[in-house]
Task: inverse folding
């Protein structure tokens, strides 16, 4: 770059000297040329030195050790472990959290707001000074403003602030815990990494005490599948640690630490023992030939046994199978999609099956292809067939796609009717539920009114 600039200025100077009317010797011309070149180069260099911001840009790329660089890999692992241990020591431990609570309670400012103890900004800063250096980052004006909710005395709730601190400490502890399983140190977990994390977490969850050790591998597979189904939509085989922390799945998993978790909470929690046993039990019940895999015929009995054969054909065409049969991991994806039809990840799974020609949209042909199977089932039950034109118009009215002739995945997600459309096209029971929705609502109202009368 410097040489190019020198040549540029040299050419300018040569032309300038050549055009000079005065006759000079070669030595004089050369001297003037050198003098001017030195002057202009010095000015340019001084200006460039001021603008060289790249000199202050920190290094941001570090090559990872290759597989055969065993010593470098070991050094990297040890340095990461030391780093994570240091980060862990920077967090508040149980004793320090207890001390923080005593200080907050000691400096509360009257009067109470309902049943909650409050603290003003002056006392808040005083607690920050007494709590020690580890707590300093929590006692800032930004945190105080974030927790302030129109108290007439300008105070914040002590309990809300303490919960905020607890949540932050928990997040950092969990991030460090997950990072220990990040073997590559790249900020994400592979399937095997998350399996190891959950396997070692099981003994710390009282709600899983009753699980047989022989079931651990199936439980871990069931738990890990939910993370990867929803957080890895592109099926890359890895999930960012920050995505795991941002979703609610880890909260649901760690909820199993509660020894008094209600039966309702257990049933609605995918990670609970009853839920995992339910899903695995269904799989075993479907597996009539007991070979550990599911054929299309066996899967057809799933749920209310009303999924259409056309849809099941697509499942076995698109999903991973072994000699035409489905294993437990593929079955879990199937269950997660059908049990969570409102979720974008589940709709993406179902949409891929409905999009037979892989065009990225559903047209009238696609809808007709799948609904014909519903019509055939209706006839088998001795019911009057339903007009496809009516159903097609209702679907387009529900979804309101950008293109009046094509329904994309994004259209289904935006409409918030994707689960209904999917049910109409793949499941006879889902279609009848939609078709008789007004009757069902009326019956529910009648039952509710009867209950009210009985109570009276």
Result:
């Amino acid at each position: 770059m410097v040489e190019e600039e020198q040549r540029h200025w040299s050419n300018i100077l040569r032309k300038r000297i050549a055009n000079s009317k005065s006759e000079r010797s070669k030595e004089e011309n050369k001297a003037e040329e050198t003098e001017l070149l030195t002057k202009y180069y010095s000015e340019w260099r001084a200006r460039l030195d001021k603008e060289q911001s790249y000199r202050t840009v920190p290094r941001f790329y570090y090559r990872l050790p290759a597989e055969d660089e065993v010593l470098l890999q070991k050094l990297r692992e040890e340095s990461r472990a030391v780093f994570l241990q240091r980060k862990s020591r920077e967090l508040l431990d149980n004793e320090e959290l207890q001390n923080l609570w005593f200080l907050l309670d000691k400096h509360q400012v009257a009067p109470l707001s309902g049943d909650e103890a409050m603290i003003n900004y002056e006392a808040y800063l005083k607690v920050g000074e007494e709590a020690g250096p580890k707590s300093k980052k929590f006692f800032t004006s930004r945190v105080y403003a974030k927790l302030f909710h129109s108290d007439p005395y300008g105070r914040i709730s002590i309990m809300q602030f303490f919960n905020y601190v607890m949540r932050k400490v928990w997040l950092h502890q969990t991030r460090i815990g997950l990072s220990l399983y990040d073997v590559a140190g790249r900020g994400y977990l592979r399937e095997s990494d998350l399996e190891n994390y959950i396997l070692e977490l099981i003994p710390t969850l009282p709600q899983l005490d009753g699980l047989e050790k022989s079931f651990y591998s199936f439980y871990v597979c069931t738990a890990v599948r939910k993370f990867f189904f929803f957080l890895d939509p592109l099926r890359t085989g890895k999930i960012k640690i920050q995505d795991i922390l941002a979703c609610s799945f880890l909260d649901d998993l760690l909820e199993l630490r509660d020894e008094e978790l209600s039966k309702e909470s257990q049933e609605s929690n995918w990670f609970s023992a009853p839920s995992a046993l339910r899903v695995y039990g269904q799989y075993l019940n479907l597996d009539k030939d007991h070979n550990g895999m599911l054929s299309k015929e066996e899967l057809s009995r799933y749920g209310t046994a009303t999924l259409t054969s056309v849809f099941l054909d697509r499942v076995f065409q698109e999903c991973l199978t072994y000699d035409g049969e489905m294993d437990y991991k593929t079955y879990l994806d199937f269950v997660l999609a059908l049990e969570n039809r409102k979720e974008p990840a589940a709709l993406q799974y179902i949409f891929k099956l409905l999009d037979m020609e892989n065009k990225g949209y559903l047209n009238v042909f696609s809808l007709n292809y799948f609904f014909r199977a519903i019509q055939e089932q209706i006839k088998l039950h001795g019911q009057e067939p339903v007009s496809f034109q009516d159903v097609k118009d209702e679907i387009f009215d529900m979804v309101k796609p950008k293109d009046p002739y094509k329904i994309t995945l994004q259209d289904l997600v935006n409409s918030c009717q994707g689960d209904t459309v999917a049910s109409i096209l793949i499941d006879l029971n889902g279609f009848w539920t939609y078709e008789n929705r007004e009757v069902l609502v009326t019956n529910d109202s009648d039952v509710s009114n009867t209950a009210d009368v009985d109570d009276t």
